Amino acid sequence: MMINQLKAGAALNYVSIMLNMVVGLVYTPYMLRMLGQSEYGLYSLAASIIAYLTVLDLGFGNAIVRYTAKFEAEGKKREQQEMFGMFFLLYIGIGLIAIVVGTLLCLNVDRMFSVNMTALEVNRTRIMLWLMTFNLAFTFPMSIWGSIMTAYERFVFQRLVSIVRSVLNPVVMILLLVVGYKAVAMVVVTTLFNIITLIINFYYCRYKLYVKIRFGHFNSAFLKEVSIYSFWIFLNAIIDRIYWSTGQFVLGMYRGTVAVAVYSVAIQLTQMFMMFSTAISGVFLPKVTAMVTYGGNEKEISDLFIRTGRIQYIVMSFILSAFVVFGRPFIQLWAGEGYEEAYYVSLLFFFSLLIPLIQNLGITILQARNQMRFRSVCYVIIAFCCLAFSIYGTRKWGMMGCAYATAGALLLGQGLVMNIYYKGRQGIDISRFWCEIGRMSIMPVIFVILCLWTVNHWEINLTIPVVFIYSVAVFVVLYALLFWFMSMNAYERNLFISPLKKITI
User: Fold this and answer.
1) How far is CA 377 from CA 340, 472, 479, in A?
2) Residue 403 has pLDDT above 90, yes or no
3) Which InterPro entries does the annotation name (predicted)?
4) What is the per-residue pLDDT across 175-194, written as a single tens digit (0 to 9) for each?
5) Host domain of residue 196
6) Number of domains in the chain
7) In a domain, 154, yes or no
8) Interval 453-464: pLDDT, tens
9) Structural domain contains residue 148
10) DSSP letters of 311-360?
11) With a threshold of 0.85, does the pTM exceed it?
12) Is residue 331 part of a domain?
């Protein structure tokens, strides 16, 4: 039964991911056109502000999953129930803190945004912040039920609820947008769906899993152990928020809602770009963990690091190359007029993220060696530098200044500093890595330059949908053939051929 849960849960997880991507690609352009830049900017701004408060989770969600599974395996039901009670009370306290902080934010909306926003926009932002604060405060204590379901490996139910929510949420949103409702209504719908989901999780845990909570036993030693485990997760959450929420907040303060809307579109595209790398790296994690754990030498680890990086680069370079050529007309067709600058912001993020995305295996190596401290501290320092330069860049150069600050921080921390660390302290052959990536890049660089020249020389209008689709199809076929023969080695070709051989046999 559990094996079925795992397999079905994994399958439904991929369905959920693909569905969210499809919904995002189909629903987002409709929403952008119905809302308009100003309203979408207000919605994105409010969401980015509240996103900072999510770090109050302190990494406890992951800790609940870990220790619930641990106690369950050890048959310690009472300790498990006492832990639930402890975290439930902690989350209530965190929820109250969220309400206090959210209230302070709501009361100071005028002071933060009145310079570049109208009185009506400020008022709508305040309403959305109130709703989002209530949503978050309710979510904190109720989130334990989702963590418990994960620990009990009830993946099928979780994924089914997620899929239903992913479908119903945009459907209801579209109906409201057609009627004439705007950003505030979207926040109301999101809040209602979230509350319903959390209540469903509670009933499932209470009446299907028969989960009980015991109050009155607060184990300070256990809390200390959990806090140490959660600390690094908490740091990473802070880093993510600084990188991907600061821009909207700063732009809202100094440049207004239109800039926030354009920047948010770029962030959405960037997150899609990152998803591809995460999906690829997961396949190699068990192997590298075993290798590091059982004493693999530096050459073996370097070989795997390079091999994995090359495979990730195959996919990431294709997406990046296609976006360089077709990104501008795609944004125009997808998002509509007025979002052209999102192309340049996205390009900055894509290029700056390429290094850490094709080196994801480095994180696994550090985790296996229990040497995550340097990376976490380094990223925190760089992230706060990013915050400072984002404010300066936005005030001086606007949206692109904010993007330059974020991209520069990513290149400095996740690119330069970590590569020096991988080479000097982890013994990874970074020089050979970049030599191989450099050789692989010759074909894409030349091909992209020729494509851009062709489009400009022949004045091909890629904003015509038929022309766009035909051009993309030709690009994909030619790129795949050229990359296959000029950039890939025998091992990589075999990775693609092997599954086809199994199907045909």
Assistant:
1) 36, 42, 40
2) yes
3) Poly_Biosynth_Transport, Polysacc_synth
4) 999 988 899 999 999 999 99
5) 55-218
6) 1
7) yes
8) 999 999 999 999
9) yes
10) HHHHHHHHHHHHHHHHHHHHHHHHT-TT-THHHHHHHHHHHHHHHHHHTT
11) yes
12) no
